[in-house]
Amino acid sequence: MSAGTTIDATKTAPAVDAVRTGQRIEDVLDRLATTGDPAARAAAEELVQALMDFYGAGLARMLHLLSTPVGRRTPGDPLAGLLGDELVASLLVLHDLHPEDRTTRITRALDSVREHELDVVDFDEETGTLRLRAAGGGGCGCAASGTTAQQAAEAALACFAPEVTAVEVQAAGRTREPTLLQIGNGPGTRTATTAGPAPAKAP
Questions:
Q1: Which end of the chain has less Cβ packing within 10 Å, N or C?
Q2: Strand, coil or helix: 130
């Protein structure tokens, strides 16, 4: 993206009158109030507040990124900071305004959790399942490590690539059998050997 990200001019948000939109929301809430169901109105008000908080946080994040001094921005692409931010990216994807394709956005998501060392195996278009392989050793190889990696990948992909509806993480394949440790009865008798049949006892 050294030449800069190209934005598709056809993917522009429709013109919206803020005043009319606000009035429309008030009208809907008033209609709910006339139904006599306070729970329905409370739920609608909570929904409106949640959306306002979400978009307000997104706008604040955009302003923060755009106000970053030029010397501290990602070089080469003026949009890199916006497209690489989870909150901003989620808003752009939600409205089909993100200029990057799915493959690039999946890569961005995995880059944001690179400590788990996940590689893409394949993506199932029909089910929306992304299969990943854990490239790292994963310490002791506990199942919890794989679960943590999957959860981290799911959270990142939800922001950058919501087309991915399921994530499967495969453990990295072993290239050789582990060396077994034979332990003797006294000090200095511990040696690393491969497993073999037990010697026959003398008659």
A1: C
A2: strand
